[in-house]
Amino acid sequence: MADIDNETEADVTGVAATAPKDDTPKRIGDRKLKPSTLMMGHGFDPALSEGSLKPPIFLTSTFVFPNAAAGKRHFEGVTGKRPGGADGLVYSRFNGPNQEILEDRLGIWEEAEDALAFSSGMAAIATLFLSMVKPGDTIVHSGPLYAATETLIARILGRFGVHWLDFPAGATREEIDAVLSKAATGNVALIYLESPANPTNALVDVQAVRASRDAIFANSPTKPPIAIDNTFLGPLWSQPLKHGAEIVVYSLTKYAGGHSDLVAGGVLGSKEHINTIRSMRNTIGTICDPNTAWMLLRSLETLELRMSRAGENAVKVCEFLRQHPKVDSMGYLGFITDARQQDIYDRHCTGAGSTFSLLVKGGEAEAFRFLDALKIAKLAVSLGGTETLASHPAAMTHLSVPEARKKALGITDNLVRISIGVEDADDLIADFDQALAAI
Ligand SMILES: *Cc1c(COP(=O)(O)O)cnc(C)c1O
């Protein structure tokens, strides 16, 4: 549980009495410590693990009750026979010490009340959806979404009678109002956003979505929660909970994991929403394993360093690419040309990230010659790792997207997707320079 202000209130669904406890103060005097400081110790007490500086990896499927009464007390909490919920760890499908430390630390970045770890970004998204929707409900979402998320909503949840309506990522308040009002004639279970959209880089106006939701559902007993996939810019460059989102979703595989060596997901939000999602995760077992959680703890220690460096590198590389004669245009949040998008950027983002689109002059053949000539950048999908990656969406990740839809999304044959890593910026520029010369 993210307990960033040293509150001592009871946790309703079970932070373990027996799990390693917090060892780092969250404040020194009036000074609230920053996430990059808290990543080294928060949520772990070495005294509970033989003085080990780093948390051990707890490989166990189950946890021992100190006595029968404690076992009964636990299950009274789980079943609601006793208020206050479960406490203590009991079985590893529900949680474990490494995952709990990870969840404590994940929540810190966005000052979320609580957080959950998952075995993949898609496991996080699927568990969120399953915990919120029932047949006949509507999911209203921004478009485009990550391809697997679109598949999950339309082709899988659609089979169970869930409906969906979408608005374009860059929609205005009026356009959002129109779609939400139409959806509100039925039961809207969830508003689901992704910003920036991939590969268009269009930003969603989260504040406008929140204002629209609050106005349209002003007289409803319940308002559909607003969830957002913050994988591309979070947690360093965008913190949507501050702009009206209530649930934040991550593929931790990307910047948070950051070394292209694991697959994991996360969800952050209020205790109330997180508890709803936790019940579903407990039931279906989409939690990440202890080893992955431990690797993520290591990743989070350098999150700010890595993301800052990648962002700085991207600024330099994009400045170079922009003026290159073989480059047609760029889709990079540092070079927004639309005034409305710039306004959203100024309100919502503190950095342009390190993932962008490069449109070379020519078509697929030119794009392929460029990709095949790269010496440092590796040809691979994914993003947010320490190493620079490049891919061709039209021929790879979006190959199965119908031509008309590709056109609408601006996925052209000369578009190359690049995720900049933490290498030396001038080395990367030299690599892109020689690869452009090969076109
Ligand atoms: C990669 C990604 C996902 C899916 O995450 P996995 O960890 O691969 O399951 C979801 N959303 C976005 C924006 C992503 O980039």
Tags for this model:
439 residues, alpha/beta, Aspartate Aminotransferase, domain 2, Aspartate Aminotransferase, domain 1, 7-stranded mixed beta sheet, 5-stranded mixed beta sheet, 14% strand, disordered N terminus, binds pyridoxal-5'-phosphate
Give an account of the 3D structure.
The chain is an alpha/beta fold and 439 residues long. It folds into two domains: 202 residues, 3-Layer(aba) Sandwich (Aspartate Aminotransferase, domain 2), CATH 3.40.640; 136 residues, Aspartate Aminotransferase, domain 1, CATH 3.90.1150. It has 14 helices and 14 strands. A seven-stranded mixed sheet has the order 3-9-8-7-6-4-5, sandwiched between helices. A five-stranded mixed sheet has the order 10-11-14-13-12, with helices on one face. Strand 1 and strand 2 form a beta hairpin. Helix 3 runs parallel beside helix 9 and helix 6 packs across helix 7. It is globular, with a radius of gyration of 23 Å. The N and C termini lie far apart (52 Å). The N terminus is likely disordered. The site of pyridoxal-5'-phosphate has 13 residues, from helix 4. InterPro entries: Cys/Met-Metab_PyrdxlP-dep_enz, PyrdxlP-dep_Trfase, PyrdxlP-dep_Trfase_major, PyrdxlP-dep_Trfase_small. GO terms for molecular function: carbon-sulfur lyase activity; pyridoxal phosphate binding. Its cofactor is pyridoxal 5'-phosphate. It holds the Pfam family Cys_Met_Meta_PP. Keywords: Lyase, Pyridoxal phosphate.
